Amino acid sequence: MADKQIDKAAQAAVCDDDKDKDLFRHRVSIDLTPENAIFTRSSGNLISLSVTQPSGEVEFFERIVPVRSFPISSPEEFISIREPDSPTRGRGDEIGMIRRLSDFPEQTAALIEEELSRRYFTPSIKKIHSYSEKFGYCYWDVTTSAGRIEFIMSNPTSSIRTLEDGRVFMYDIDGNCFTIDDPLKLDKASYKKVEIYL
Amino acid sequence: MSLLPLDSLSGTARDALTAHGIQPEGLDMCLRMDLDMNGGYGEVWLAYSRRDGNLYRLSGDEKAGGQVDSYPLCSLTEPYIDNYATSNRLQVHRHDPDDKPPVQGDMTDDEFRKATDQYNCSGTTIILGYCTNTCKLKLLAFTNLWERLSRGEDVAADDQIFDQFNRVCPKCGRPYRDPQRRICEHCVSKKGVMSRLLGYFGYFKPQVVVIGICLLLTTALSILTPIVSGQILYDRVIDPNGPMHELKYVYIWVGVLIGMAVLSLLIGVVQNRTNAYLSTRVVRNMKNDIFRAMQRLSLSYFNQNPTGRLINRVNYDAERVRSFFIDGVPYFIVHSLSYIVLSVVLFMINWKLTLLLFAPIIPIVLMIKFAIPKLMRSYSTLWRRSSSMSSMMNDSLSGIRVVKAFAKEDAETHRFYQYSSKLYNADLKVNAISLCIFPVISIIIGAACHAMWGPGGLMVIGKQMTYGELTTYIGYTGLIFGPLSFFTNFTNQVTDVMNCAVRMFEIMDMTPEITEVPDPVHLDTVHGDITFDHVSFHYNPNRPILKDINFTIHKGDHVGLVGHTGSGKSTIANLITRMYDVVSGSITVDGVDIKQIEMASLRRNVAIVSQEVYIFGGTIADNIRYAKPDATLDEVVAAAKAANAHDFILALPEGYETKVGIGSRSLSGGERQRISIARALLLNPSLLILDEATAAMDTETERLISEAIERVSEGKTTISIAHRLSTLKNCNYIMAIDNGMLAEMGTAEELMERKGIYYRLWTLQNEQLRKVMEGR
To answer: Which of residues 194-223 of B touch A (CB under 8 A)?
Structure first.
C-alpha cells in the first residue's frame, strides 16, 4: 500500500506545472546492480522494481519494461530497464541498465529472462514440413519450439538473414520472427527446403 | 445485439463458454489470441459483453473445458497493448472494488482530467493475453472497440473499422485470403496475368504477325533441311540407284540447301529487327505505366518502400518480362511446333528407331532437373554477393568525407577485399558448376546422337531403311535434344516472369490511400481560414501522433508552432497539405473539408517548405519555378530576392543558370533552404507553411528572410514551425504542441504568463544564451 502512495505522489509531481524544478527534470539512468535494484513479480504478474538512487532515495515502479540493446548477439547483456510507455505521457524513460543479467541472483535473472523471451518471441524452427512458392510469396509449414505454425513470407531473399555464426533469422509478412539455431542440425528434408536461401 | 464481425467464436470455444454458463448470444465481440499464457502457440479467447457487464477470458486446454475468468468491465480501465518486438501483450488496469472513478460534478475540466488520469493509473495492471503480430490488427481493433463501447457508443457491424478485414478484390468482388496482402488469387491466375501481359503486345499486331510468320518459316526450314540433305540428296542423287543420279542434280540440290540456309538467315534478320522494334516499345510502355502508377500513389507508400526497390521495379521487372517474351515465348512455340511435326515425321520414317531416339530424353531431363537447382542456388548466391558488394561500395563512396575525416581508407579497402573475395568464391563456384554441368549434358546428348548410328546402321544393312533416311534421322537428333534444357528451364522462367508481372501489376492496380472525392470542390483562390475540428492522427494505432486537436487560424494570421521533437508539429503541416488523411475529425479550409477540395486547388493554394529540402537536377531557375513552370523571369528573381537567395545565386559563375543537383554543384544546407523557400513563394500561396524552413541559417539571414516573407505574405496566412523561438518573433500567436495535444495557444506574452511549455522552452533557450554570454 505504501508503494502505491509513492507511485501516486510521483504522478502528481509530473502533472504539476508550477514547480520550476520539474521544468527541466529528466531521469538520469543508473547502473542497476543486485545491490541497488530489487525486481519482484507484481500482483498482476508483471515485473516491479524498487531501486535505490545514488542519492539514497528509494523509488518504486509498479511495472518496468526490459529492452535488449543487442537482441541478437548479446541477449543477456546491456538490458535497459525502462518505465512503460504511457498513452498520456509518451515514451518511457530509462531507469537504468543491467550490464550482465548473470550478475543478478538466479531467481531475478529468470524473472527478467522470462519477460524478455516473451518480448522477443522468436520460436526456433525444428522441422520444416512443407514449403512452396507462389507469386513471390513463400508459404511455410514448420514445427517450432513453441508449436506448429504456418506462415507466409514475402521476398525470401530479403526476409531470411544468415548470421556469421550460422544462425538463421526468418521474418514473415506480419513481422513475426523465427530462427533456426543451426540449419546443419535440421533433418535432411528440412534442410533442403531452406538451403537455397542460406 | 449481435456479435460484431471481429473474430467469430469457434465451435469448441462456444461450447466451453456455454459450459461455464455464458450465453454466446449476449456477447458483443470476440477476439482470438494466438499465444497461450505460457508463451507457446495456442488459443486464448476474449469475449466482451455489455449485457453481462463482463469481459471473459477463455484460456487453457479446451478439451478439458478450458478455464474462464470473468472481469467486471466497470473495474477495468485503459486497455493497453504493450507492443513487443515480435509479439503483443494486452494489459489493462484493474481497480479495487472501492476505487471509484471521479465524477465531474463541480470540478473544473483541468481538475477532472487530473483526477481521471490518477484514477486510470491506480489499481494493478493485469495481463489479459498474448498474441503474435499476426493478430495485431484485430487486437488493435478490439481495444478501439472496447473503448468506444465502454463510452456507450453504438457500433454497428458495418462500422468503418471492419473495412480493413473485409477488403475485396475490385475485379471479382471476392474477399482477399489475406487482407494485408491485396492479391486476389482468382484474378492473378497465371492465365490472367499472362493475358494482361500479352495485352502490351496487342498494340503491335502487324509486328506480332510478322514474327509469327518468321517463326513458322524457321520451323519449316529446320525440318526440311535434313530431308533435303538426306532423303533427296543422298537417296535420290548420290545413291547409284537413285532416280536423279546425275551431276547437274548434285549442283541443283546443293544449291537448294545453300539457298535454304541463306533464306533462314534472312528470315532471322527480319525476325530480329521486328523483335527489336516491338520489344523496345513494349518495354517503354510498361515502364511508363509503372512510373505513372507510382507517381499517383500516396506518400505513405513511399515511406514503406525504399527507393532502390522501386527503381528496380521500373527497370528490372519490365526488362525481365520483355526478355521472356523475346527470348522465351517464341522459342517455346518454335520448339513445341517442331516437336510435334518431328514426332509425326520420324514415326513415319521408322517407328522403332524413333522409340529408341526418344528413350534418352528421360535421363537427360532428369539430369537437368537435378543440376539446374544447384546452378540456380549458386547463381543466387553470386547475385546476392555482388549486390552486397555494390551496396558496400555505394556506402563507402557516399560516406567518403567521413572515411577521410577518420583516416579509414585502409580499413575501407580491407572491407572491400573481404566482399570481393566472397564474390570471387561465389563466382568460382558458379563457373565450376556450370562448366561441369553443360559439357556433361552436351557429351551425353552427343553420345546419344552418335549411338543412333549403331542401330540405324544395322537397319540400313538389314535394308529396313535407306542410308538417306538415316542421315535425315541423325540430322533431327539435334533438333530433339537441343531444346531439352530450354524446356526443363522454361517452367522456372515462367514462374520468375509471373512474379515480376504480379509485382508490376500490384503497383498499377494499387489504389492511392488519398483520393479525390468524385465531385471535388474547385477553389480558384483560397481565403486562408483553417480549422482543425477534433483531429486525431496516427500511423500506428498504438502510438497516437495527434490527439483531438482543435483550433482555428484566420486569414492573415501568422502562427507559430512550438513543441518538443516528435510532438506532432510537422504532422499538422502534412495534414493541412493532405499528404496524409486524418484518422478522425476534420480539417476545413475556408469552411470546406479538405477531403472535398480538388487536390490541385489545394496544393496550388497551400505551399509548404518542409524540413527535407530536395533540389532536383537542373538549373537553379528551374528549381525555383518547379511548381509553376510558366513563371516569368521577373517572378523568379522576385521570389529569390524575397527568400534572400538572390545574392548567393549571383555569386555563382552562371547565376540563375547554374546547374545544381546530383553530380553538379552542391549547395550548402542554408542555400538549399533558401531555394526551396523561393520555390514556395513563387507560387504566391494563400497559405504558407514553413516547417523548420530556416533552421540551417544564421540568425541574421533568418531575420532578413522572415521580414521578406512578412512583406510578401501581407494579408495571407502563414504557419511557422520552429525550435528556435527567435524564428517566431513575428507571429501573432503561438500554439504549443505537447505529446500530440494542443497544450497552449495564445500570444507570446500570454504563454509566458502561463508558465507552461512555451515558458519552459523560452527559459531553456535564454539560459543557454546567458551561459554563452557569461562565457561558461
So the answer is: none
Q: Minimal Cα–Cα distance from A185 to chain B, Å?
A: 20
Best of A6, A174, A178, A196 to mutate (most B CBs within 10 Å, chain B): A174
In this structure, the answer to whether residues A7 and A103 fall within a common structural domain is yes
Do both A115 and A130 map to the same domain? no
Which of 32-51 (B) contact A at CB < 8 A?
Answer: 35, 39-42
Q: Do A62 and B125 touch (CB under 8 A)?
A: yes
| Residue B218 CA, distance from chain mean position | 43
Task: Say yes or no: A140 and A88 in one domain.
Answer: no
B499–A136 CB contact, under 8 Å: yes
Q: How far is B15 from chain A (nearest CA, A)?
A: 24
pLDDT tier for residue B182 given thresholds of 50, 70 and 90: low
**Structural domain ending residue among the three candidates A119, A137, A164:** A119
User: What is the per-residue pLDDT across B57-104, written as a single tens digit (0 to 9) for each?
Assistant: 888 766 666 788 888 888 887 788 887 778 888 888 888 766 676 776
B133: chain A residues, CB-CB within 8 Å: 174-176
Residues from chain B contacting residue A123 (CB–CB below 8 Å) = 41
- Encode pLDDT of B290-318 as tens digits: 888 888 888 877 877 767 677 777 788 88
Is residue B177 within 8 angstroms of chain A, CB to CB?
no
Nearest to A31 by CA among A90, A97, A108: A97
Nearest beta carbon to residue A176 from set B126, B133, B380: B133
Burial B667-703 (b: 16+ CB within 10 A, else e): beebbbbbbbbbbbbbbbbbbbbbbbbbbbbeeebbb
Over residues B621-656, the pLDDT tens digits come to 999 988 888 989 999 999 998 888 888 888 888 889
Q: At what angle do helices B484-509 and B190-202 cross, to 10 degrees?
A: 80
Residue B612 identity (one-letter amino acid): E
Cβ-Cβ contacts under 8 Å for B476 (sequence gap 6 or more): B226, B342, B345, B346, B357
Domain B530-773 has what CATH class?
A: alpha beta
Q: Decide if pLDDT at A94 tops 60.
A: yes
Q: What is the pLDDT of residue B1?
A: 52
C-alpha grid cell, residue B724: 528556435
A71-80, B484-493, B648-657: least confidently modelled range = B484-493
pLDDT digits (tens, 9 = 90+) for A149-185: 988 887 777 788 888 788 999 988 888 889 999 888 8
Structural domain range at position A11 = 2-119
Q: A175 and B125: CB-CB below 8 Å?
A: no
Residue of B37, B76, B86 best to disrupt the A interface, most CBs of A under 10 A = B86
- Between B379 and B658, whose confidence is greater? B658
* Interval A97-142: pLDDT, tens: 999 999 999 999 999 998 898 888 889 999 999 988 776 678 899 9
Q: Among A74, A103, A119, identify where a domain stops.
A: A119
User: What is the grid cell recorded at B417?
Assistant: 577485399
d(CA B362, CA B376): 21
List of chain A residues whose C-beta atoms are within 8 Å of the C-beta of residue B181: 137, 152, 154, 173
Reported as half-sphere exposure (CB side, CA atoms, 13 A), residue A22 has a value of 13
Could you tell me how many helices (H) and strands (E) chain A has, helices first? 5, 13
Among candidates B89, B380, B756 on the partner chain, residue whose Cβ is nearest the Cβ of A196? B380
Please answer yes or no on whether A174 and B133 come within 8 Å at the CB atom: yes
Q: Which of B86, B183, B495 sits opposite A176 (nearest CB)?
A: B86
Question: Is B330 in the A-facing interface, judged by CB distances under 8 Å?
Answer: no
Q: Using the 8-state DSSP alphabet, how is residue B9 labeled?
A: P
B83, closest residue in chain A (CA to CA): A119
Same domain, A31 and A108: yes
Which ipTM did the prediction report? 0.81
Total structural domains in chain A?
Answer: 2
